[in-house]
Every structure is written in structure tokens, then in C-alpha cells.
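Hi W.,

Here's what went into the run:
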Amino acid sequence: MAVNLKQLAELLGLSQTTVSRALNGYPEVNAETRQRVLQAVRETGYRPNRAAQRLATGKAYSIGMVMPIAAGIDSDVHFGEFLAGLGEEAVKHDFHFVLNPSAPEDEEATFQRLAASGNVDALFLAYMRANDPRIAMLKSLSMPFVVHGRSIGEARDYPFLDIDNTAAFYDAARLLIQLGHRRIALINGPDYLSFSIRRRKGMARALAEHGLNLDEALVHHSLMTDEHGYRSMQRFLQQPDAPTAVLCSSTVLALGAVRAINQAGLAIGRDISLIAHDDVLPMLKPENFSVPLTTTRSSLRAAGGRIATRLIASILKSGAYPDQELWRAELIVRASTGPAPQK
Amino acid sequence: MAVNLKQLAELLGLSQTTVSRALNGYPEVNAETRQRVLQAVRETGYRPNRAAQRLATGKAYSIGMVMPIAAGIDSDVHFGEFLAGLGEEAVKHDFHFVLNPSAPEDEEATFQRLAASGNVDALFLAYMRANDPRIAMLKSLSMPFVVHGRSIGEARDYPFLDIDNTAAFYDAARLLIQLGHRRIALINGPDYLSFSIRRRKGMARALAEHGLNLDEALVHHSLMTDEHGYRSMQRFLQQPDAPTAVLCSSTVLALGAVRAINQAGLAIGRDISLIAHDDVLPMLKPENFSVPLTTTRSSLRAAGGRIATRLIASILKSGAYPDQELWRAELIVRASTGPAPQK
DNA sequence: ACGGATATCCAAAGCGCTTTGGGAGGAAAA
DNA sequence: TTTTCCTCCCAAAGCGCTTTGGATATCCGT
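Here's what came out:
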């Protein structure tokens, strides 16, 4: 059924060379001949065998990523959204992705296998941790890669795209302080991820500038699920000196937090203020919360698109992009933040 | 840096044939020789080039899927969860995935390209629609595939895994009817997807058995987001003869519905009953809703795992699995369902 | 001691493509 | 007319692996 180059060439009475050249846009082929070839391709439905193409050129037209997976590991909404961004860009250049599932402890080895397999010509890395060993590993692979996020405590001499998490949560905390809040809580992502660390740092800095301290009892780290948001908020509210404002690292966490607040009979924006980081997840819009949420916004999907663009450019060696990018999140004030309640 | 078979063979003073055979477990090689080869592999870090391997064997050890993507298309939580299930199973057999992004209108052509590319040796298809043309296309590709869901109005002569959506929503609706509800609404997924059609049918059947009709004004179809759930519920509640019970096709929709109900000052499980279909999304557990949700439950992740198992078995020709599977969703009663309020 | 298994190994072909290094033929230059 | 230079095309090598079809050596029974 499927024709290959050889058959196609025979059919046309041309050599494989000429057909190949015609298809790949080389100049040394007659315009008329090229048209004939193109026509034949349309008629036969010829598709080049990618494996062969790859073997010959070394290019795979694909971006590799490892997908940590285990019985206990939850799928992550944020990941899906990011992938959508990557995909949106990749489809424009006819690139695809190779997802290599891997046990978390095996991730580095999986990256090496992936790189050596010849299946991909660039790698993508995310969920950065402090002192992340994977960066050194990727550097040693001599294959283009881009990191989403940044490590902490390492030279920044690798290509990344990150948002300025420190600034985002600094801005958010400062707004709350200006509104008169003094006891501010933080419902953060996992404590080993660098974005969590930076957000916490940004918040602490804003507090410090106003002579305030970050109270350890008001900081929770957890996976960013509705459930954890709920539990954290509930625990905060049970404390003797409950916070009057909360920062959430995701709208998903905020979802649970809002629930806990409502259940406690408190009014958001009046009794307690809430700011969440908004990754612009389409299924969870801050403006649709019962009380619209004040957020620090930065589109995950856009980040995915940008990373795909850079990765593809580095493979095709087309166009130059900055190696390091730090995006600024936008602070958007809605109804969930109000002046601190008077005691 | 990276060694290939030839170099490895030279290093060992063996032929490529022997080394290849030693690695692939063929019998005609001395046990001692095999050990030497294995040792050398360990020392050199030799990894076979997959592209070459594939070219020679035709096997890619990978499962292909096309990922519909466009500016307007939202990422889907359900997809991520399903993928986790696929991955969990695939990692056990060292399989990977090829995700080919595609414009929605281009999906069929993308499948064909994917199949012809030699990049994958099985395909996976989901989000089935009624009279889905993709099934005939996949059949024509002479490559194993498994469908998640089923089409409607076509011979069922293709491999699929689906849940019995009709039965699930029949059960759910019947429970509500038994509780005395007469006006029951449905917040469903997109109307062109077959699971939506079947759920609606199941609900209609239960109503019909009790002499009731499905009121078109009480049926909404939409993407399964929080926002749509909210809007639908809001509109239902504004109607003169508002429903006393609602079926939701996803806990994500239920999330919005609950918000609308709360906002209207109604009590879930007393003023209005709610049943949602639960895909067992880790970020959204029905038992964590302010009023725990009665659900029809079936794990999407488990479905992903099973499909991966079947796909891999069909590639490796190891073990036989049923070609068609229909899973039964479990009806789990929690606090969100109660007797219909007396007028 | 000899024909025939049996156990190990190897050379070479082939998978489908790209690319190098020409070659034939016609047009332009001498 | 001969030489030079393009233009357009081709044969063949090579990418890294698997696999077919032997080759060689060892060992058996008779």
C-alpha cells in the first residue's frame, strides 16, 4: 500500500536523488520536474519514513520530555495546559513530542536513554527543584534543551524560561500589607520546587520591608490540589490568631481555600482577603469565582508556546532567541482583596 | 562519545552480528561471550539507536496519539489523568508515546502521517463522536489501535474500551426518581461526543420508565469546565419551574454547579440534589465537596492503564485480551442526594 | 578414523532515506 | 569549431541496526 522513495522514483522514471531533492526544496531540480514529483506524491500518498529520514539526517523533528509517573503520582492540570501551549506551536512546524514515562527516581537515566535513542533532537525539562541535578546532566548530553523554571543555587548558564515568582509574590504581599493586613498566610506548592521557594521568598521580602515576619505557622506546602487548599485554609482558620489574608500558589488551591472560608461563614474580600497565582487555566478562571479573585497572572500555555518556539529554532538553527527569559507576572486586582478588617 | 554497534563489536573483537544477538537474547551465542558483551555495554553506556533499530525491525516501541490543538481548544483535565494511566503502564514495558499535535480538522490526515512515519506501531483514539469517521480510517491503516469510548451508529467491530455511560446515568437518574424527584436537569459534555449522547439516553430511559419526559430546557451541553457548570446551573435555577435535582457529566462541572447553588442560597442534598460522574480526578474528589457528592464512578486513569496494556500486548503479540470491553460505573451515594423537597 | 550433528561465530544484504561526487547535454564564450 | 560553464540529473555510499545464509570448529557415534 504505502509507497517508498524508490517506488516513487521508478514510477516517475527519475532517480531517488532527484525525487528526494525535489521534495526537500533543493535548487538543482527543474521546476517542471518538481511539479511532476509533487503531483505523484499527491496521487500516491507518499510519506517519507521518518525513521529512515532520521537515520540519514540525524534529525527527528521531535521534542523529548520525560513524564514522571508512578502509582502515587497525580496527574497535574498545570501540565496539561502547558502541553497545550507546546503543542500549539509545534504543530506549526510539524514537530511532535516523545513522552517517555519514567519512575521519578529513574528520571536522569531516562533522559539519557531518550537522548541516545535518536528519537528526539531536543529536550524539555520542568518542575525545577533547588540544586537540580538534572541540569548538569542535560548539559552533558550535547543536545539542545530548554528548562521551564530555574533551579536555585546554581549558575544560570543554561537556557530557561521562567516567570519572576519572587516579584509576583512580593507584589501580591505588598498589596495586602498596604491594605492593612498584618497576618498573611501562604498556601504554597511543594516545598522542594523552586517556584515555591521563590514565591515564599518574595512574600517574606515584602513583609520584611514593613517590619513584619513570615510566621511559619502560616505557611503550608503541598501538591496543588483543591483538597490541599481546603485543608490548609481550614487549619489556618482554626488558629487562635487567624490570618486576615492568604496567598495561594494556584487557583486550584484557591478553590479549596474558598470553600473552607465559605464554610467558616467568612466573607472573602471583607473578613479575609485572597490572592492566587493564576496560570490562566481555562477550566478555572479567577473572574468566575463566587468572589472574583485577585491574581498574579502569567499564562502557562503561552510559556509552553514560547519554549516550543525556542526549542524548534535551536534544532532548525533558524532565528536567534534569548537564552534566558524571565517573564513578569501581572497583578490583577479583583474583589477578593479588601482592607484588613478592624479588630 | 556515544558508541554504536560497530564500535562495540570492534572493541570486543566480535562481529556486529554476534553482539546484536547477544543483546537480543538469541540462543546461538556462548553464555560467556554474552556476559562479555553485557559487561562492555555497561562500561561504554552503549544504547542502540532506536531509529536504526526501527528501520531494521519495523518496531518502534511506541504508541501514537494525535493531540487536537488550536488557539481555541482548551486543555482538558481529563486528558491529563488518562495520560497518567497510559504512562504508568507503558513505563513497565519501556514504551513511549508520540504525541502529534494537529489542527482538529486535520486529524485524519495526521493519523495517516503518523502511521506512515514509522514512528509508532500502534495508535490510540479518544473523544469519540457519533458516526466517527476516524474509525474507518484507523481500520484502513493496518496498524493495531484501541479506541477509548465507542462511536454510535456503527458496527462495533473495532477494539475499544468504554464505560457503560447509558447504564451509569440510568442508575443515577433512577435513584433521583426514587427519591421523589420529578424535574431533573442534565449538565452534560459536548453534544457531539458519544459519551454525552449515551448519558443523556440513559437518563431519558430512566425517566421514561416512570412516565416522565426529559425536558429539553433542562439539558445543557458544553465543555466540561467549572465555568460552564456554573452558568448552566444558574440558568436552571432562574427558570420558573426549577429542577430539584441535577446530573453532571463531570465533577468539574459539578464544581461550578455547586457554586451556583450556594449562591442561590439553596442547600445541596435538601433543596436540590446533585449527582456527578466521577472520573476519579485526584485534584477534585467528590468526598471533599462542601457537601460530599453522590457520583457514578469510573477511574479514567485505570482505563488509560488498561488501554496501554492492550495496545502493548497487540504490538508484542503477547497475551490475548478481549477486543471490546465495557466497564460498569459504580454508583456511590453520598450526601448530595436527598428526598425531593415537598412543595 | 570418518561422516554428520551441534555449537559459535561471521560477512553481507537490506531497511528507506539523504548526500557526495560526478556526468551528460546544451548554451555561451573564444 | 572548440572550449567552458551551467543546468539537470544519476549512481552509489552511508546512517546503525537486524537477519539470512553460510563458515569453522568441536564433538559424537560407529
